[in-house]
Amino acid sequence: MRYALFAISLMSLALPSAGCRLPWREGPVSRSLADSRRLSQRGVAALEQGRLESAENLLAQAVAACPEDAEARRHHAEAVWRRGDKAAAIAHMQEAVKLVDEDASMWQRLAEMYLADGRAELARDCAEKAMDLDPKLPGAWAARGGAMLALGNPRDALNDYLRALGHAPGDREILLQVAELYRQLDQPLRALQTLQGLADRYSPGEEPARVLYLTGLAQLAVGRHDDAVESLTAAVTRGQPTPEMYCRLGEAQLAAGRQLEAEAAVRQSLDLQPGYPPGVKLMQRIEVARSAPPTMTR
Question: Is this prediction's pTM over 0.85?
Answer without folding.
Answer: no
